[in-house]
Request: fold
Amino acid sequence: MARAATTTDAFNAVAEPRRRQILDLLAAGELPVNDLVARLGVAQPLVSKHLRVLREVGLVDVRDEGRQRMYRLNGEPLKPIYDWVRAYERSWSTRFERLDAVLAELREQEQGDDGSDS
Reply:
């Protein structure tokens, strides 16, 4: 049952850290599976397993080039994740603006304290 949940959508697929590492590597450009194996430092069967999950949800595309299989990122299935996270951006922005205001106030107080001690 847990296996099926992994392949249903991009949210579940990227929940696994190793798959996120693969996506990070592919974001820089197309790579053969052997390069992914070397850069990740894990066994080829494990990388292939993760690539299969990413393919099933459409996050990576594969093409044959001679004897190699070349993998590339397909970012479109990440859009629902982006849209979901973007909703929280307003909250983060508001909090950072408040923090900036507090820091500015503290700087002003600090400068005022430095000036009165002279």
Remarks:
- The chain has a mean pLDDT of 88.
